[in-house]
Amino acid sequence: MPVKLIALLAKRRDLERSAFVAWYEEYHVPTILEVMPGIIDYRRNFLPETTAGIDAVTEICFADKASYDAAMAAVCSPAASARIERDQQMLFDPEGIRTSLVDERGGPCLPLRFGPGERLLL
């Protein structure tokens, strides 16, 4: 069963959003892909503005729990840990990194179809 790790991330306050996104895509992504084996999907979602202290939501997927465990063991090695820490110092507010495994549900988004006089209640 696939395993998904979500990261809620806050950029450093002194970074412009464009610089944050550029560094993340050009340096952070390759670093993570080099030091964290077994990633089968890696998505970055950048918020248009800081919302609830969050600037980006990252999704990292692994084929199964064993692949996730191997990736976590790899990033805990001294060399990988040092690389990630240096990179994170360039990007993130030290208090602004929150991660969790999630239990993903759902499937493809389907268009909502409403008849006359019907509406979606939230």
What characteristics describe this protein?
122 residues; flat; alpha+beta; Alpha-Beta Plaits
Q: Can you describe what's shown?
A:
There is one protein chain. The chain contains 3 helices and 4 strands, in the order E-H-E-E-H-H-E. The chain is of the alpha+beta class. It has one domain (3-102): Alpha-Beta Plaits (2-Layer Sandwich). It has a 4-stranded antiparallel β-sheet. Strand 2 and strand 3 (54-62) form a beta hairpin. The longest helix is centred in the first third of the chain and has 19 residues, at 17-35. It starts with a strand and ends in a 20-residue tail after the last strand.
Helix content range = 25-40%
* Count of discrete alpha- or pi-helical segments spanning 4 or more residues: 3
Number of strands: 4
Q: Tell me the overall shape.
A: flat
**By helix and strand content, what is the structural category?**
alpha+beta
Low-confidence stretches: none
**Mean pLDDT figure:** 91
Multimer state: single chain
H/E series: EHEEHHE
Biggest sheet character:
4 strands, antiparallel
Distance between the termini: 31 Å
